[in-house]
Amino acid sequence: MKNEELLTDDQINELSFEQSLERLEIIVEKLESGNVPLEKAIDLFQEGMKLAKRCHSKLENIEHKVEVLLEKDGEWLKKPFEYDEGAE
C-alpha cells in the first residue's frame, strides 16, 4: 500500500484492524503536518473517517465475541466481557 495514494472503499474493507490503524496514523500525521493542499486534506480526512469507522466496527465485533468464563457451583458459565475503563 502506497502512503500517498488514497484507498478505495474495497481496499479499506480488505484491511486488517492493524493495517487500518496504521493507515489512519499515517493520515493523521500528514494532516497534522499542515503541508497538504486543501483538496488532498479533505480526501485524506474522508478516508480517515472511513478507516476510523472500520476500526470501531471491528472492535465492537470483537467485544461481542469476547466472553469470560466464570465458575459457579462447579459449572463454567459464559458471561459477556465487560470492560472497566477505570482499571487502566
Strand order of the largest sheet: 1-2
Gap from first CA to last CA: 34 Å
Estimate what percentage of residues fall within beta strands.
5-15%
What profile does the largest beta sheet have? Answer: 2 strands, antiparallel
| Structural class assignment | alpha+beta
User: Spans of 5+ residues with little confidence (pLDDT < 50)?
Assistant: none
Mean pLDDT: 83
Q: Work out the radius of gyration.
A: 19 Å
Order of helices and strands: HHHEE
Annotation field: number of helices:
3
Report the count of strand segments: 2
Overall 3D shape = elongated
Number of domains: 1
Describe the 3D structure.
The protein is built from 3 helices and 2 strands. It is an alpha+beta fold. The chain has one domain. It has a two-stranded antiparallel sheet. Strand 1 (67-72) and strand 2 (75-80) form a beta hairpin. The longest helix is centred in the middle third of the chain and has 28 residues, at 38-65. The radius of gyration is 19 Å and the shape is elongated.
